[in-house]
Amino acid sequence: MNRRRRSAVLLRGLIGSLTAAALLAGCASPRALMRDMQTLITQEQYPAAAELVKNAKTSHYGAKNAFLYYADLGMTLHLAGKYAESNAAFESAKKIATDLFTKSVSKEAATFLTSDNARPYAGEDFERALIHVFCALNYVFLGEENEALVEARQADFLLTKLQTDYGHKNVYTEDAFIHYLSGMVYENAGETNDAFIAYRKALDAYVRYRKDYGTAEPPALIQAALRTAAKLGFTDEVREIKNRWGGTVPGTPPTGDGEVVVFHYNGLAPYKTDSFFEIGFIAGWAYVEAENPQGEDREKMEQAGAAVRSLLADDVVRVAFPKYVRQPYAVKSLEVRAAEANASHSANLAEDIGAIAIKNLQDRIGRVRTKAIARSVLKFALSRKIAAEVEEKRGAGAAWLTKKILQVASSATELADKRCWQTLPDQIGVASLTLPAGKHTLTLTFRDAAGNTVLTREMKDVDVRPGKKTFLTIRTAH
Length: 478
Known about the structure:
By secondary structure, the chain is an alpha+beta fold. It has one domain (3-174, 253-476). It has 16 helices and ten strands. The strands form three sheets. The protein has a four-stranded mixed beta sheet. The N and C termini lie far apart (63 Å). Mean pLDDT is 82; it is low at 7-11, 17-29 and 309-314.
C-alpha cells in the first residue's frame, strides 16, 4: 500500500472509530430518563419505575448497557415487592457482569483507542457485590433464608476473587453489612454459633468501614454479638467485644417476644460526571508508553511515535475521567415507634453506598487516568501525523480540514465513562425493636439534619412471631 493510500485508510479508520464511539457515548445513560425514574422512586411509585425500565430496554440501555438494565430492573422490582422477579433480573445482571469481566481481563489491550463508552458495561466492583446483597434481601423476604446465605457467601467469594485473581487492590474487600445480615438470618434460623461468627466478622469489617467510609458499627450489632456469644458461653469473646466495642450483654427477652428489623433505604446514589484537565503533550506521551497497548493499537502508537519529535512541548491535550457527585436529600434519620408497646428505636447507618462508590473509584482512578491520558495523547499524535501527510500530498487547505475533522471527532469522544447503577439508595440504615408477639402498628418518623420532621409513614398489622425476626423495608428519596 503506498503512502497516500495508507494515510487515507488510517484517516478513515480513525474518524470512523472516533465517531462511532461518540455516538455510543451519547446514548449510554441519558440523565432525563434517570431523572424520571428517580422521580417515580421519590414518589414511591415502584411498579411504574419498573415499567419505565422495561420500556427503555432498547431505546435507552441497548446491548452495551444490559448490565445496568437488569440491575435497574432488579432494584425497582425489589422496591415493588416482586422479589422473585427481582432476583431473576439480578441473576441476568450477574451473568452479564461475569462474562464481560472475564473477556475484558483477557482482551484488555484490544480497544485502546476506543472510548470506554463503546465497551459493554460490566459494573463497578461494589455494584457487582451489591447485587448479591439485594438478592439476599429478596430471599429473606421470600422466606428462603438458606438461599439468602448462599448470596452472602457469593458476595464474599466475588470480592476475594477480585483481589486475588485480578489484582484489584481496592479498599472495598468485603461487605460489612452483608455479614451483619447473615448473622440475623442465622440467628432467625436458630443457628446461634453461625450467627455469632457472622456478627463477629461484621464487627471486624466495620473497623475498616469506620476508617475508610466513616461508617461505625451499629450498636445493635454489638448487642447481637454479645447476646449470641453469651448464649454460647463464650466468655472470652464476650470480654473481648466489651473491651473493644463496649456494650453490655442484653438480658433474655420475655418468652413470646420477637424482633422487628427495619431496613431503611435512604437517598439517591451518587452519579458520575466528567472531570476534565489538560496536560502537556510531551509529558503525556509517557502515559502512552506506560499503558503499553498491543495489536493494532500498538501499530498506531508506533506510527504516531514518528510525529512526537516534531511536536512542541507546550502543546496540550484535553483528558476526561469520571468522578462521583453525591445527590442532596433531606431525610437524615429514622425513628421507628410501636406506641402500644411503648418501644422505639432510631435507625443506625449500616451501609454507606455513596461513600463506598466514591472510595472505590478513588482506588482505581490512577489506572483510569493513565489510560485516559494515553488514549488522548495517542489520538492527538495520530491526528497531527495524518494532517502532515495530507498537507504534503494535497496542500494546506486539505490539511486544515483534516485537522478540524479529527479535532471534532476527538473532542466528541473525550468523555469519561459515566455509566453507573443509579437506582441504588445512597445509604442503608437498620432499626430493630423487641416487641410482644402479635400484630403491631409501627410509626416511622423521618427527620432532617436539624431534627425537623420531613415525613411520617405507618406500617400496620406487622406480625411479630415469638423468638423470630420480622424483616421490613422502607424507601425514602426526599
